Amino acid sequence: MREDGADLPWDVVVDRCREALPLVSFIDVDEPAFAAVQPDMNRTIAEACTRTGQPVPSGRGAVARCVYESLAMKFRRRFQQLAGFTGRRIQVIRVVGGGTQNAALCQWTADATGIPVVAGPVESTVAGNLVMQLKGTGQVSSLAEGRRIVAASSQTRDYQPRDRDAWDEAYERYCRRYP
Are 165 and 174 in contact (CB under 8 A)? Predict the structure, then answer.
């Protein structure tokens, strides 16, 4: 993310988003405007908030928080839809790859959905590739065995849902704006 023409490291962006006011404005992350690279994504987000009668996020932290919380709200909607289709409720959300390094997004996903999140491993693509090579050479007998090896040799972090009342109220606002 850029600020005043300079790139900001993602850990700085995540730190700043934690400092912004929570649950203020949301975007529909599935809108076509957010699917394509925009020359000024901040303006695109501001336009979406203005169009839906919400405060416009000001500063990199508030913009990032708007995006991350909006992703968490969309996850909640999609998991509810999935439960409706299947008749089964998801018991745990597993985040793998680079997203595991965004502790704010992982926590807010747990908060928004009410479902615990397990984040890790960060190098899931490498681990999956290795398991398939080991299976192909007969060094592991099954995918289940490979998964056990990856789980035993990887670090994970657990996030438990919290602040449920605030997130439930915010989700109602989200659903009114994005039915």
Answer: no
